[in-house]
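Problem 3 from the worked examples.
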Amino acid sequence: MPSLHLNGITKQFAQHTALHDMSLTVRDGEIFTLLGPSGCGKSTTLWSIAGLHRPDSGSIAFGDRVVFDHGRVNIEPEHRNCGVVFQSYAIWPHMSVAENVGYPLKLRKTPRAERDRRVQEVLELVELDRHAGRYPHELSGGQQQRVALARALAHPPDMLLLDEPFSNLDAKLRDRSRQWLKTLQSQVGVTTVFVTHDQDEALSVSDRVAVMDHGKVRQVGTPTEIYEHPADLFVADFVGTANILSAEVVQADGTHAVIRVDGVGEPLKVPHTGKRLGPVKICVRPENVDIHRVVSDVDLPTAALTARVDNQAYLGDHYRYTIRIGGSPVIVTTTRPATTGELTVSLPPEDIRVFHEEADSNEENHHAPVH
């Protein structure tokens, strides 16, 4: 299957610029997710790849085949060979499962015997071969979604494009569908671009993720890189749950920084590649906040502090507490319940990410985006 290359893509609607000079490379055979809030440009990117939107500048190539080059090349959607699954599934209610799946082959005038063979093949792939004669109203939401996916795969596509395909499913079915899609995609090996605003979805199914905001790519990386080493404050705050606290860098040598955190008495030495001093924001994930079971003060780190629990929730496999550090709410998660209305905690220096508030570039931050 080919790789995908977007170079300098810009798209404007009236006075609104949906995409700003976007460049991305999706590797052959990977699941690449566009993640971001509503209106960030992820669906516009997907439809530009499919040929349903015409960008105002830039180029798009499937491997060595250029499908769009502004002013020179614009291959029509039906000739780009993209399999597309819409958020609404868009399967025809008057057609059976087999007829829906076989329709793209019928349009291409594929001989009947070959068409029947391929329909049977993809229905087995999506585990719907026993439902070939059923109609959409006789299927569950998850089954309808698999019909849409089977139809997208019926004529082997160069690119598989998925636009929020699980958004209409309930939570448990979404989780099962994600696992099923990842297994199916590894079997088929088709290069896949997946659009979602659901962070769990992006982290669980993707080989790599592009986090988007206002038509720009903030960071590209593996799920681990995106979650554990966010490139900037937006990525840190958008992906997962993040505690964002005010602090000040008082020393910095390009490898580490000494910071003072509001509400924490002792300064902390944290990994940081910048050298600038002054006010910053820091990010620490709830599961990384250290909780101390107090036996004696001797056992506690010097930066430990005891805070009253403002809020608590039992979530089955873990407990979620809200405390305050320096007047700012801090979420803490743990598998063990607090036995009093207080928690003694400390911030783990190795898991703290430092961001200069006014910096839009990443050169001063702890990690630059991975492209």
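Problem 4, a separate protein:
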Amino acid sequence: MAIITPGTRRATFAIGDERAARRVVDLLNEALDQGEAAVAAFERRDGGWDISVHFAELPDETSVRDLVGLAAGGDVAQRITFDTVEAKDWVKASLEDLVPVHAGRFIVHGRHDRARVPANRLGIEIEAALAFGTGHHGTTRGCLLLLGEVLRSRQPRRVLDLGTGTGVLAIATARALRRRVLASDIDPVSVHVARDNARLNGAGHLVKAICAPGFSAPEFARRGPFDLVLANILANPLRQMATPMAAHLAPSALVILSGLLPHQAQGVIASYRARGLVLRRHLVNGGWSSLLMQRA
């Protein structure tokens, strides 16, 4: 079924650093009613940030500029561009360029490419959806490549996919090992999508997806300590979770970390090295870094 979104009004602007971007995003989220607008921030490779705000109804442009000006200054506020995003069948449009992604023994594909999966590869069917992670992003592919390397020599028994998104990493691990995997995300939509995708891939009985921030849920203690953790998130959350993650690792556990730009990798490596982990592999794929670390 086609999913057509109506034309919406959008505000876009660039900002110089992460701290300023967070201030702007926090203020906009606080000032705009939930459901009135959706705010997104994306880091560029040069270290700057692009921010976009999609509005459900026609916004008061002066008020939006005033809000941004409070958090980031008048110069940034004046550079805001307002435009209209045309109505579009987003699922159809996303599938047009969604070709199968090869990542070692794994192939991530859409429903329309089921027949293109070779018999000697493990196909994971993931449709374009609201949750992050169709396999086409360099971070997801990097995690799958490192996962393939790990599974050539080890058979971890207790596995966690932290920040699961569409569930692609949890599904890949569960199907390759034929063992249960715990998957978590802070976003309820992602948890729902991950559960649906696990069932679609015949792994619904193996993947348990829960909604939880960080390591706060009791399920982490019950299912740990973990022999393998996959965390495809972002640099800052990964650094912040180094201590609680280390507390949930089994001896000699392996950790796959991604969502990092290459210049951010050393900071993340240092955070985990301080908690007793050593770097085993640093993979750069599609302009993104993925790390394989091990508890010493």
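Solution to problem 4. The mean pLDDT is 85. The first helix runs from residue 18 to 31.
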